[in-house]
Amino acid sequence: MGTIDVHTHYVPSAWPDLSTRAGPGTWPSLRVDSEREAMIMLGDAEFRRIGADCWDAAARVADMDAEGVELQVVSPTPVFFAYDKSGDEAAKVARIFNDLALEICEPARDRLLPFAQVPLQDPDAACAEVDRAVASGHVGVEIGNHVGDRDLDHEGIVTFLQHCAGRGIPVFVHPWDMAGSPRLDRWMARWLTGMPAETHLSIIAMVLGGVFDRVPDSLRIAFAHGGGSFAFWLGRFENAWHRRPDLIGVSERPPSEYLDRFSVDSVVFDPAALRLLVETLGADRVMVGSDYPYPLGERPVGAVVDRADFLSDADRAAIRHGNARRFLGV
Question: Which long-range contacts link 21-30 to residues 24+ away (Cβ below 8 Å)?
Fold first, then answer.
């Protein structure tokens, strides 16, 4: 069996004017520079240069074949979440991009598995859109790790997670909207430090906010980028839970007893970091991810797993495809 890559992104080659379809304001648009290159724009500002591998199924499949990837989960690029807009506006945007994702994946529907986006700021609309998307062909849903100041333990987001658990819809959590400052706006520091911190914070919210105590064990949820810095600082988290129960000990159990409730991808690049993930969470809680096709992703896909000589053949098979099949329900 080939590798299953649970962390990739898409961008359509075109989409309607969102200020007309969703509402007035600053929206992402696409400046097409050639048949194979484009620039995502936020208003008049350049956001990210992309290539045809963001929208061309044939290009994606060619790369997958070259790197032994059998299936690829194709998720939204977080800049399109529209969590800063009204729920109605974000719902319109989600519908547009979810339908475009199906079009992108259709030429290789046996290889490309689309994940939807939802208007997470509006729980009722989010539940309705994920149901519509799954009925239309989506396999799961990607959500951002927060909506403004609302983390994953916010009542509305918990309602959405309970909805997904009840319907067997896998949830992939991706960090986004990292805080900026003069210190963080250099050297891509928001991506190098902010993304791991955001993911770490959201796993803490799932534990201390009581989400894992309130959501059924059937919830299949995974966090991008190896869970951020969570595995490295689990000992500090555990120590604080026991030593400051007046502030930290609000979950039913210590943090270490929730490690079997979530999974992470393998986008950590270094075998030493992968070893820490496997030793902390277990080999059954790590899945190959690449962040394809973006420059900070891993190429070839699964290279860190290949270099991890501490893995048994069974562990390597689980991380490459077995765990993902369970997560995705395929």
Answer: 21/92, 21/93, 21/96, 22/82, 22/85, 22/89, 22/90, 22/92, 22/93, 22/96, 23/85, 23/86, 23/88, 23/89, 23/92, 25/85, 25/89, 27/82, 27/93, 28/79, 28/80
